[in-house]
Amino acid sequence: MVRREFNHEVPIITVRHFTAGYDGHVLLRDLSFDIYPGEVFVILGGSGCGKSTLLKHMIGLYQPLKGAIHIEGKDIVTAQGQQRLGILARIGVMYQQGALFGSMTLLENVRLPLEEYTDLPGEAIDRIALMKLQLVGLGPAAYKLPDEISGGMRKRAAIARAMALDPPILFLDEPSAGLDPITSAELDQLIIGLATHLNITFVVVTHELPSIETIADRVIMLDKRTQGIIAEGRPQELRDHSKNLWVRQFFNRQVEAVG
Ligand SMILES: Nc1ncnc2c1ncn2[C@@H]1O[C@H](COP(=O)(O)OP(=O)(O)O)[C@@H](O)[C@H]1O
Ligand SMILES: [Mg+2]
């Protein structure tokens, strides 16, 4: 379903001739793609094909072997010092093991990035942190510990923390991992709501088809064997028109997303 129209003129993220791997072993080779403002962009592919690796490079945790990654026009691969911090302030991240600090309340968890990156007075930080929790429906749970809430609530709290500094781009690595289908669907609705109403750009790693169908404006599908992108486009287009039979079968629920 095409939910919204996008300005496809100026990408918010560009990846060019990206090659990466570990210990001299190439995992992903010569990837190029663009992500546009306000999109929910899904990175898809079998287990171990390099989805998390790609995401970690896009947020500047690792250096690629080759290629460039521009975030709002600035290359995160080569940026250093203040310029690099400036780019990092524009992105929020929820990791695959998106852990909250267990000894801190949700409010304290969301306060952390604000304490670290701003000079705001404590009272202002409190108010902003509470607002972020309210945005994900967790206002009433602000003073609870992570252990005292459900898995779905913890994911939402982690999203609130990623949003603390109002980044225009959020990266989520398998947000629905470990959630039951209903909780997972609620999380999908939260993502769509934030993208639609706050124009946040989402880069989401997932391999769950129902989630992809609900949230994805566009997807790329990575492939372990070719180390590249085997499909790129809107899910419906890929389901009906991909030149790759396996991709069509995946979107038609005829094969599993194992690579
Ligand atoms: N820090 C690392 N050092 C060495 N190998 C790694 C590292 N992180 C991931 N790998 C390996 O790279 C491959 C891709 O991992 P990953 O990007 O996590 O895949 P995905 O997220 O698609 O399941 C896997 O074989 C994994 O074991
Ligand atoms: Mg992963």
Fold blueprint:
Layout: E1 13-22, E2 25-35, E3 40-44, H1 51-58, E4 66-71, E5 74-75, H2 81-88, E6 91-94, H3 106-117, H4 122-135, H5 151-162, E7 169-173, H6 181-198, E8 201-205, H7 209-215, E9 218-223, E10 228-233, H8 235-241, H9 245-251
Helix pairs in contact: 3-4, 3-5, 4-5, 6-7, 8-9
The structure holds adenosine-5'-diphosphate and magnesium ion (MG).
Magnesium ion binds next to helix 1.
Explain this structure to me?
With 259 residues, the chain is an alpha/beta fold. It contains 9 helices and 10 strands. The protein has helices at residues 51-58, 81-88, 106-117, 122-135, 151-162, 181-198, 209-215, 235-241, 245-251, and strands spanning 13-22, 25-35, 40-44, 66-71, 74-75, 91-94, 169-173, 201-205, 218-223, 228-233. The chain has a 6-stranded mixed β-sheet with strand order 6-7-8-3-9-10, sandwiched between helices. Strands 2-1-4-5 form a 4-stranded antiparallel β-sheet, covered by helices on one side. A hairpin with a 2-residue loop joins strand 4 and strand 5. Helix 4 packs across helix 5 (151-162). The longest helix has 18 residues, at 181-198. The radius of gyration is 18 Å and the shape is globular. The model has no long low-confidence stretch (mean pLDDT 93). The structure holds adenosine-5'-diphosphate (ADP) and magnesium ion. Magnesium ion is lined by residues 51-52, 96, 173.
